[in-house]
Amino acid sequence: MSTLLVTDLDGTLWDDSEICHPKTLAAVAELERKGVPLLAATGRRHRGAKIGFEQNQLKLPAILVNGASGFDFRSGTSLFDEKFELAVIAEIVVRLRDAGLSPALFTSPDQVVIGQNPTVGSKYVSSVTEGLVNSNDLLGFVRDEEVSVLGFVLMSMTKAQLDRTRTVLAELDFDAYSYHRDQYFDGWMVMGQAPGVSKWSGIRRYVDDVLGGVDRIVVVGDSTNDVPMFAAADLSVWVDGGTGDPALAELADLKIDGPQDGGWAAMVELVTETA
């Protein structure tokens, strides 16, 4: 039976300092020796994932921006992009603007576009060392037919701002987003992709286009953006490490300890024993 193991990154494969436990790195190597394919699935854009991989001396294929992009860091090959229809993202930008909010946009190739007074916090803006684009007219930017918007994000929000954001998206009947308290930049984060796009849709595309199919998909994660893949996978594993979302535990088949304790190493046994 062929099995694909899919792992979230932050709070799952590595800890809050973006460091993998030695036991985790040994487990990744063991899976490679056993011939078990490993795929990362993350909300990070290309550069953020690359930095984390390089810090841990890892090269993996990855689903980025919560399913909106695929990239193989082993070969340096772009696999796919799933972009917004311009009318859809333009309407989101307009309605958020009317609510006093301004998202940052993730565009291809690997840029972060912000307008005036972006709702992301100065700490996040300072962290974007490459690919930051300042636009005086964010709406005009997204209406450019040559622009490929992969996702949007609002960060460092108060609860009131989060509630306004969710109200706007509900009024638009838009549900391709996740939200959670942000462990890196404080406050609340909302991140969205094109309708129908999720980590799970990216995983399925990778399975069909790259692997040509598998018998079973096992997923491991800790946060709300992992809900679609937990709901659809053959086996789901929740990371109970203190920063994980307890609501996700209700969907999980099994649980492991957090990345700070090398809990991910248990995946070798889980993948092989439950096959």
Describe the model.
- There is one protein chain.
- The protein folds into two domains: 3-81 and 197-273, Rossmann fold (3-Layer(aba) Sandwich); 86-193, Hypothetical Protein, Haloacid Dehalogenase-like Hydrolase, Chain: A, domain 2 (2-Layer Sandwich).
- The strands form two sheets. Strands 5-4-3-2-1-12-13-14 form an eight-stranded mixed sheet, sandwiched between helices. Strands 8-7-6-9-11-10 form a six-stranded mixed sheet.
- It has 275 residues and is an alpha/beta fold.
- The mean pLDDT is 95.
- The chain has helices at residues 22-34, 46-55, 86-98, 122-127, 138-142, 159-171, 199-211, 227-232, 246-249, 266-273; strands at 3-7, 38-41, 61-64, 69-72, 77-81, 104-107, 111-114, 132-134, 149-157, 177-181, 188-193, 216-221, 235-240, 254-257.
- Strand 7, helix 4 (122-127) and strand 8 (132-134) form a beta-alpha-beta unit.
- The longest helix is centred in the first third of the chain and has 13 residues, at 22-34.
- Helix content is 33%, strand content 25%.
- The chain is globular, with a radius of gyration of 18 Å.
- The protein starts with a strand and ends with a helix.
Radius of gyration: 18 Å
Taking the alpha carbons of the first and last residues, their distance comes to: 7 Å
Q: Estimate the helix proportion, in percent.
A: 25-40%
CATH architecture of the largest domain: 3-Layer(aba) Sandwich
The largest sheet is: 8 strands, mixed
Assign an overall shape. globular
Helices and strands, in order, run as: EHEHEEEHEEHEHEHEEHEHEHEH
Number of domains: 2
Strand order of the largest sheet: 5-4-3-2-1-12-13-14
Mean pLDDT level: 95
As residue ranges, the low-confidence spans are none
Instruction: Report the top-level CATH class of the largest domain.
Output: Alpha Beta
CATH topology of the largest domain: Rossmann fold
- How would you classify the helix and strand content by structural class? alpha/beta
Instruction: Output the number of helix runs.
Output: 10
By CATH's scheme, which homologous superfamily of the largest domain applies? HAD superfamily/HAD-like
